[in-house]
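Risk register update: the risk that structure generation would not scale has been downgraded. Supporting records follow, first protein first.
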Amino acid sequence: MSVAYDVLNDDENYHHGNLRDELIAAAVDVIGREGVAALSLRALARDLDVSHSAPTRHFKNKADLLSAIMEEAYEDMLTTTVDAGYLAGDNPAHRLRAMARACMRWHVDNRALSEVIRNPDVSRTAGRNVKEVLAAFYIHSSRAILGAQGQSRNPERPVEFVYLNMIVSVVGAASVLTDPLYVETLPALDADELIDDMVDHLFPLKD
C-alpha cells in the first residue's frame, strides 16, 4: 500500500467526512485571533493533523474557503435577524427595531464572522449563493421598513435609503465594538447600551 494512499485513508477515517466543517471552524478561530491575513490552508491542515493536500479536496484555495465562511455567516445573520423580527410581535415598528438590534448584536457576538463579511478582499470573491442571501436580507428588511413607515417620524424616506442607513450603522457599530483598540480606549463601552441608542436614532418611534 502506498504512502499517499495511507495518508488519504487516514485523513478520511480520522475526520469521518467532517473535514470541511472542521476546516471552517478552525479558520473562524484563526480569524478571530489573528485576522483574515493570517489564514492559511497549509497551517489549518497542520493544526488539524491532516496532510497538507487534504483541505484542497473541499476548498481550492484560501479564497474558496473564505467564500464558504462568508456564505454561512450571511445565512446565520439573516436567520438571526428575521427570527428576531418575528419574535417581536405584530407591531411593524417594533419588528424593525428588533431586527436592527439583532443584526448589530450578531456582529458583536460573531466577531470573526463579522470581520470576514466586512473584508473587501473577501467580498470580491462572493458567489451567487452569497448574493442570493443578501438579496433575501434586503427583501425581509424592506418589508419591515415599509410596514413601519406609518409609525416613523420620517415616513417619506425611500426604503432604499433607510436600508442603506441601517447597513452603514450596523457595519460602523460592528467596526467599533469588535475593534480591540476602540474597546480598550473608549471608557465604559457598553455594547447593548450603544446598540439601543443606535436603534433609537435609526428608527425613532412617534411620541
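Supporting record for the second protein:
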Amino acid sequence: MDNKTKELVNKGVMLPLMEEFYTIQGEGAHTGTAAYFIRVGGCDVGCHWCDVKESWDANLHPPTHADIIVKNASPYKTIVITGGEPLMWDMQYLTSSLQNQGLQTHIETSGAYKLSGQWDWICLSPKKTKLPLEEIYPEAHELKMIIHNKSDFEFAEQQAAKVSDKCGLYLQPEWSKKEIMTPMIVDYVMKNPQWKISLQTHKYLNIP
C-alpha cells in the first residue's frame, strides 16, 4: 500500500472492503428488513465463534474508495455497516456521504473502538475479549448479547446496566450452541421480560 492510499485509509476515504450485498437483516430489532450490507475488513476482538473470521485481516481486503461504496449502496434504503469491527476505521466520510444520499445508516459493532460516523441506528454487541469503550453505551439503540454459555447471562446484565433506558435489549444464541442455549434464553426472557430474543433468522432461511 503506497503512502497516498494509507493516508486515504487513515481518513476513512478508502476502506478495506470485504464484501457488499443486498439481503434481509436476520438479527435484532430490524429482523426481516431489507438491507444493504457493507462488510469492512479488520478485527482484533477475536471471538472464537465468529462466522466471518476471514474478515479479521484487513490486509486481505483491498482499500476501496468510499465514493464507490456509496454509489453501489445508493439504490437501497437501509445500509448496515458491519465487519470485522468497522470502528477500527474512521466512519465519518462514509456515513455522511450515505446520509447525503438520503440513506439510513446502521452499524453493528463491539464498541471496542472510538465511535465515529453519523448513525441512525447503533447495534452494540459487547464481547468479553475486548470490552466496549464507555462512550458508546449511552449512544446504543440496541444491545445484542450473544449467549454461548450460562455465564453470558450475567455478562449480558452487566452490559445492560450501562446502556440507556431507550436501548432495546436482545439475547441471541450463538449458532453452534443454539439447540442448548435457545431453550435457556426462552426461559430467561420469560422471567426477565425487559429482554427480547434475537435469532439468526437468515441462517434458518438459508440466505446470506
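The beta strands are 14-24, 34-40, 63-65, 78-82, 104-109, 121-124, 142-147, 168-173, 195-197. On this basis the risk owner (M.S.) recommends closing the item.
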